[in-house]
Design goal:
With 147 residues, this protein is of the alpha+beta class. 16% of the residues lie in helices and 26% in strands.
Length: 147
């Protein structure tokens, strides 16, 4: 299980390499994604809180990157955070997400991205429930649900 210290190490020194890579041009991503998906995933945007379709859904299944269909999170580790975005306690494996220090908007956070295609997913915070004590706060629009 990943912990905050490991995440900070990855954010500062690089994350594990993914098993595969998906790379497309900006034009190819624009053709594949909706305008909102492109804004969030490719331009590092954020959807409005409580606006995403996966905020209140806790059905079993897997959550994939909307850009490349890499499986990222299992619904069994989804947590009710009341943050306005779907939240998870950990990724499905260490190689599917990568972490980067984000110093935008006058604060220091850790950005979470798909390691396969570099899609912006959201941020991770050290204020989640045990045992990981992590909260992966993810934009709904960056996810696709696979039942």
């Amino acid at each position: 299980m990943i912990d905050w210290n490991q995440i900070m190490k990855y954010a500062n020194h690089g994350s594990p390499k993914p098993l595969t890579r998906v790379e497309k041009t900006e034009e190819q991503w624009r053709k594949k994604l909706t305008e909102e998906q492109f804004r969030v995933c490719r331009l590092k945007g954020t959807e409005a809180p409580h606006s995403g379709e996966f905020c209140a859904i806790f059905d079993q299944g897997l959550y994939q990157c909307v850009c490349c269909q890499t499986t990222l999170f299992d619904a069994s580790i989804k947590i009710k955070s009341n943050s306005g975005w779907p939240s998870f306690s950990e990724p499905i494996s260490d190689t599917v997400v990568k972490y980067e220090k984000d110093e935008s908007f006058g604060m220091v956070r850790v950005e979470v991205m798909c390691s396969v295609c570099d899609a912006h997913l959201g941020h991770v915070f050290p204020d989640g429930p045990p045992p990981s004590e992590l909260r992966f706060c993810i934009n709904s629009v960056a996810l696709a649900k696979k039942s």
